[in-house]
Amino acid sequence: MARRKEVHFFDREWHFTSSEVDYSIYHSYFDTDKSGCLYGEVTPIYMYWYRAPERVWNYNREMKWILILRNPIERAYSHWNMEHDRGREAVSFFDAICTERNRCRKALPYQDRRYSYVDRGFYVEQIRRIWHYFPMEQTLIFKSEELRHNLSTILNKISDFLEIEPFPSNNPQVVHAREYLTQLSQNERDFLRHIYEFEVKQLERMLGWDCSNWLET
Fold first, then answer.
1. Bridge partners of 142?
2. What does the pLDDT read at residue 168?
3. Fewer CB within 10 Å, N- or C-terminus of the chain?
């Protein structure tokens, strides 16, 4: 794996201002002197950033994607809580999601990294963008709750997908978790459920999933 959790190479515009991309910057995050190894990294925004899948494809068309999808309502609130905890978000969660579209326009023509609480939960378009460049067989997609509750099963699926030896037994660990200063209110949950209802139904049809618990009250 890369030396840091989020490399943020393919979503940084300044790496792609020239037709000759300096991939040595990317390679510097890995111990590339180890022969016969598979290399990977974890940068969640690659899925959301418009140009990232195309850039990954230009770099390596054999690349495989592992996507972990979280209940978009919970994901939006967790994202806001992180920004608020870091002191980079001054408004309440409900005000933030009500004004998100206007706030995010300031980042155009790119996506907004900080305030895109709701927008990042529209997974269908993001998956389609990846599948435009990569065959479905090069993607492995599962729910975050599967990772929490069926770690061994998911690790076996990942090792099969990557065609590597099975992972050793592991005990689940919670990392990079932040305490919530408040809880998601029923009004906020209802507001987001109305926004995501059609999206979740589309995702169910696309992946053959049952995500009904994502929309529960």
1. 68
2. 85
3. C
Per-residue pLDDT tens for 5-35?
Answer: 899 999 999 999 988 999 999 999 998 777 7
Other beta carbons less than 10 A from residue 40's beta carbon:
12
**Residue 164 in contact with residue 38, Cβ under 8 Å?**
yes
Output the six-digit token pair for 140.
């492995």
Predicted local distance difference test score (pLDDT) of residue 4:
87
Residue 78's CB is within 10 A of a number of other CB atoms, namely 17
The alpha-carbon radius of gyration of the chain (Å, integer) is 18
Domains belonging to the chain, first-starting first, are 44-215 (3.40.50.300)
Other CB atoms within 10 A of residue 34 CB: 8
Q: Cα(74)–Cα(66) distance, rounded to whole angstroms?
A: 20
DSSP string, the chain: --SSS----TT-GGGGSSSS--THHHHTTS-TTSTT-------THHHHSTTHHHHHHHH-TT--EEEEE--HHHHHHHHHHHHHHTT---S-HHHHHHSHHHHHGGGTTSPPSSS-TTGGG-HHHHHHHHHHHS-GGGEEEEEHHHHHH-HHHHHHHHHHHHT-PPPPP------S----SS---HHHHHHHHHHHHHHHHHHHHHHT---GGGG--
pLDDT at 204 over 70: yes
